[in-house]
Amino acid sequence: MSDGIVDLRSDTVTRPTPAMRRAMAEAEVGDDEYGEDPTVNRLEAMAAELTGKDRAMFVPSGTMANQLALRLLGRAGTDVLCADRAHVYRYENAATAQNAGVQLRPLADEPGFLTPDQIESACADQAHHLSPISAVAIENTHMAASGRPLRVQEVEAITAVARAHGLRVHCDGARIWNAAIALATTPAALTVGCDTVMFCFSKGLSAPVGSILCGSNAVMEHAHSERARLGGGMRQAGVIAAAGIVALEQMVERLAEDHARARRLAGAIADRFPGSVDPATIETNIVCAPLDRLPDKIVERLAEHGIRCGTIDARTVRFVTHHDVDDSGLDRAITALDAVAE
Questions:
Q1: What is the pLDDT of residues 5-39, one digit of tens each?
Q2: Residue-range definition of the domain harbouring residue 77
Q3: β 103-107/79-83 pair status
Q4: Does 305 reside within a domain?
């Protein structure tokens, strides 16, 4: 909560913790383009180990990490399969067409994720004059499905069918730590079979900037030069990587608090506006609800009470809990919902 505002628009609004600020001020640095920044190197080693991948590379943003992965895994002139509401498809300004020379083929994702049958069917279409396919992109958690986490067995089923058809797999794991905490597992277990995985430090983990791309040696061998082509080369980046280290060491387990608050918020919305949200489906820190089940101009009306939320499309409002919204902030949000309901 900042300046009396309870900001539930996104977990990207989190501010760095005091421990992060100290670590940033005291970070040992070098030139990362030469591989000489010890803090960046430490962060990359930590991320690679935690995701079970060979190597990792620090980048400025999650979008850049996703775009790098699709450049590395996709093949120009082919399709990459993804969910219809995937971040790579809807929220990255059609960057893949320009950056990777591939075409995204969105598949319906009403369960909250792609299914093996969908991938199998899309692959069968290749024999009937549809475009060839080179890769699959999954998203865990799946933001537009209220942060629905993909289970280990679901990811394994997707990667198995992809492998059977010679397809490579990228996991947009912007919030994969939320998935891991919600499912009591690890990012490594959730990305077995994926060629690459990225996650963000600047969302629920509360660092001010940065994401990381992890993958096999074969894939990551080319990642550094591709990062440079996208303008992502950094110099004394240890100043920001230091916050990422603190994020991994101190901010992961507490994500369970965000999940509990999101469930409480979902329950409050459901009580006041029946049919808008099913609280039982809320497993992580995101609550999405259809605008046509809520009072008119709810975003603007909540803002009048100092509560910020946002929309992800013309039909859906989103509330996101995070480190900067405590129990008192959530109480204020629920009080505002009461005012709107009246």
A1: 999 999 999 999 999 999 999 999 999 999 999 99
A2: 18-250
A3: parallel
A4: yes
